[in-house]
Amino acid sequence: MLNRKIELALLKWKNSGIRKVLILRGARQVGKTSVVRKFGQEHFSDLIEINMENREIFEIFDKALSTKQFLERVELVFERKAIPGQTLLFIDEVQSSKNVMELLRFFAEDHPDLHVIVTGSLMEVVMRGKWNVPVGRVEYLNMYPLTFFEYLEAIDRNAVKKQLLTWRLGETKGHNLIWRELFEEYLQVGGMPEAVINFKSNHSYSELAQIHSRLSESYQDDIVKYVSKDKEASTVRMVLGYAPRIAGQMFTYENMGQSGLPSRNVSEAVAKVALARLLYQVPSINSTNLPITIKFKRPKKMIWCDIGLSNAQNKISVPLLQGTYSGQMMEQVVGQTLIADFEHEKPGLYYWGRDHNEGSAEVDFVMQRNQQLVAFEVKAGNSREMKSLFSMMDLGGDDVVPVRISWDEPGIETYEYASKKYKVYKIPFYLLERWQELVPPSLLDHNTDKFTQIKDPISVT
């Protein structure tokens, strides 16, 4: 079984004194069911799994009128009790039953010592406008495709993972080429468990393409099940086909994919696909002041759920890092990796851009950390131009922590632009998962002599 970093969050939930029913959210096929089974087998004496897509199981549990009745039926069906502290009660595909979904709110009150985890495919697509679980009655965790570090462990490259986890700013390593090659492989395979497991065993790019194609088709079939009108279904299909192709790029609802469809219809379809956890819309901000104020009328940036699926939709095969597409691809994988940090909350990822009347300047990604904004500039090639980042730093001062994501080794570089000097953190793509550890709250808080510095500033014209 694959080891997933979310298992640490699951263990923390298990041991919490204020634990509630846990709803595990994520796109279809990201490994939700597998990780709960593994967690249950490793940390509980007993695992009881109730799959609500099973017709017989559905008929039994959908009619339960209370948590008491539900647990009585558990005992009848499985011939054993769900024992607090010993049993993990796992309800899979819960979206099949509105009644069971609404019963979840009462487990925290009626059976606070019982561990209950719930998963479901397209759960929020099905729930939208029909029923809701009251805030405060359940907990949520977000699950994503495998990150690069998870991928390394999955393909038995634990020694490489250990090297990357222990690398410090300013150290010079001699294995950059190996790490880059493995990251490029990850770009092709992606993080969907089926693709990773198959590629590890067979190392076949043709089989990988078949898996990606089958997954994409299954998303089409699944979502359309919950679309009531043919016109809406065709718009959702358009979004599912087009959105992966523009992953990492700006987009607008108007005439998306040259479809000629009204913006409102496209907006609703994009929102539905987002609820299925297949895409994330990165909104724009134009200020460095807090609290963050989103500019809703500006174009958004598209981040698809998985880099492997995105590349497959774009018919990109090895070698990957060629031509203009490389920039789009690296923005997608950076966005996907940053979003994976948000296990407990809605992703807070943005891009920064000046208003048009103030000039052209855009920073690829921005996240808030405490009372500062961390600004990420993505460089797929060797370009040192970062005028937009410098512009944001001028505006925000010490409240902006600048980071350059590229293939360069980690450290701090000093740039000179327009007679000013700027210090910028640099992190390679394959270390991005450690950005919170490698990037302290402020450059001013560090003794920068500890890090490798370029004595003479790099002049940027």
What does this protein structure show overall?
The protein has 461 residues and is α/β, with parallel strands linked by helices. It folds into two domains: 6-142, Rossmann fold, CATH 3.40.50; 151-459, no CATH class. It contains 17 helices and 16 strands. It has helices at 6-15, 32-43, 55-61, 67-78, 98-110, 123-127, 148-154, 158-165, 176-189, 193-202, 205-224, 230-242, 263-275, 307-313, 325-339, 387-396, 435-438; strands at residues 21-25, 46-51, 87-92, 115-119, 138-142, 250-251, 279-282, 284-285, 300-304, 350-353, 362-369, 372-378, 400-406, 411-417, 420-428, 458-459. Strands 8-10-11-12-13-15-14-16 form an eight-stranded mixed beta sheet. A five-stranded parallel beta sheet has the order 2-3-4-1-5, sandwiched between helices. A three-stranded antiparallel beta sheet has the order 6-9-7. Strand 14 and strand 15 form a beta hairpin. Helix 10 (193-202) runs antiparallel to helix 11 (205-224), helix 11 (205-224) packs antiparallel against helix 12 and helix 12 (230-242) crosses helix 13 (263-275). The longest helix is centred in the middle third of the chain and has 20 residues, at 205-224. The model is unreliable at 444-455 (pLDDT under 50).
Give the structure's gist in a few sentences:
The chain is 39% helix and 18% strand. With 461 residues, it is of the alpha/beta class.
- Are there runs of 5+ residues with pLDDT below 50, and where? 444-455
Summarize the amount of helix as a percent range. 25-40%
The overall pLDDT average reads: 90
* Beta strand count: 16
Percentage of β-strand residues: 15-25%
Alpha plus pi helix count:
17
Distance between the termini: 51 Å
From the alpha-carbon coordinates, what is the Rg to the nearest angstrom? 23 Å
Shape verdict: globular
- What is the total domain count? 2
Biggest sheet: strand arrangement: 8-10-11-12-13-15-14-16
Biggest sheet details: 8 strands, mixed
What class would the helix/strand composition place it in?
Answer: alpha/beta
